Amino acid sequence: MNREQILNLASMPAAGPSYPKGPYRFINREFLIISYETDAEAIRNAVPEPLEPNKDNLVSFEWINMPDSSGFGAYTESGCVIPCTYKDEPVNFIVHMYLDDEAPIAAGREIWGFPKKNADPKLNVIKDTLTGSLHYADQLVAMGTMGYKHESHAAELDKTATALAKTQVNLKFIPGVDGKPAIAQLVAYNITEITVKGCWTGPARLHLIPHVNAPVADFPIKRIMSGTHIIADLTLPYGRVLLDYLK
């Protein structure tokens, strides 16, 4: 390969790239989002400066089922999101992400700095209950349940689209071959081309179990605030650097 061919690669390895070039389109992406109040100190310890956590001490635990995603196929994801501000702009900081497909794990970590690890999340409708589960190393670490489609928000889908378009922020950290930091950045992105097909709220519960390699329970549950179920089409574009810690 010559230099031009190398610089035109989509991803590693060159002989069979892990993922194609973006942006990436998702069809019928399904969310279960359970928001709850947690410990302020736990949030502060998890949020990198200069982000400022919201004073309401809320965390959202999410399951996302992606049956049709360009370049990545079909997979399920689960994770934890903390509402914050960056220079007075409302943003969501992504703390944990666990999923079951190598391509989006590699792309997510290498491009945007998503904190992705391989695990076994599932999101299913079981009788009258929307049910999310997360297993790591064969152990249950999270379970969320929500009453199925109790309250429709069909008249407010524009509000749901606005919420999905909110700026998301990741801490991207990649060491160099000498073990020292090669990339240390706050990275931001905004979902685009959003078509919300449905949004529902209802009663919800969440159970978190301590695990050393999937420490989602480090944000203890004080009070469940809301349960939200969303189905939407959307596009994940490339991001931008908010802050370079090495400069």
Quick structural overview:
With 247 residues, the protein is mainly beta. It is built from four helices and 16 strands. Helices cover 13% and strands 54% of the residues.
Give a verbal description of the structure.
There is one protein chain. With 247 residues, this protein is mostly beta strands. It has one domain (21-244): Acetoacetate decarboxylase-like. Helix content is 13%, strand content 54%. The protein has helices spanning 3-7, 40-46, 102-112, 157-164, and strands spanning 24-37, 52-53, 58-69, 73-86, 89-99, 116-118, 120-126, 129-136, 139-147, 151-152, 167-175, 181-189, 192-201, 204-208, 223-236, 240-244. The strands form 2 sheets. Strands 1, 2, 3, 4, 5, 6, 10, 11, 12, 13, 15 and 16 form a 12-stranded mixed sheet that branches. A 4-stranded antiparallel sheet has the order 7-8-9-14, with no helix packed on it. Strand 3 and strand 4 (73-86) form a beta hairpin. The longest helix has 11 residues, at 102-112. The chain is globular, with a radius of gyration of 18 Å. The two termini are 33 Å apart.
Calculate the mean pLDDT score and round it: 97
Number of domains: 1
The poorly predicted ranges are: none
Distance between the termini: 33 Å
Task: Examine the secondary-structure arrangement and name the CATH architecture.
Answer: Beta Barrel
Any idea what the radius of gyration is? 18 Å
The proportion of residues forming helix, as a percent range, comes to 10-25%
What is the name of the CATH class?
A: Mainly Beta
Total beta-strand segments: 16
The CATH topology is given as Acetoacetate decarboxylase-like
The main sheet comes to: 12 strands, mixed
Which band does the percent of strand residues land in? over 45%
**What's the total helix number?**
4
CATH superfamily: Acetoacetate decarboxylase-like
What string gives the helices and strands in order? HEHEEEEHEEEEEHEEEEEE
Assign an overall shape: globular
Structural class: mainly beta
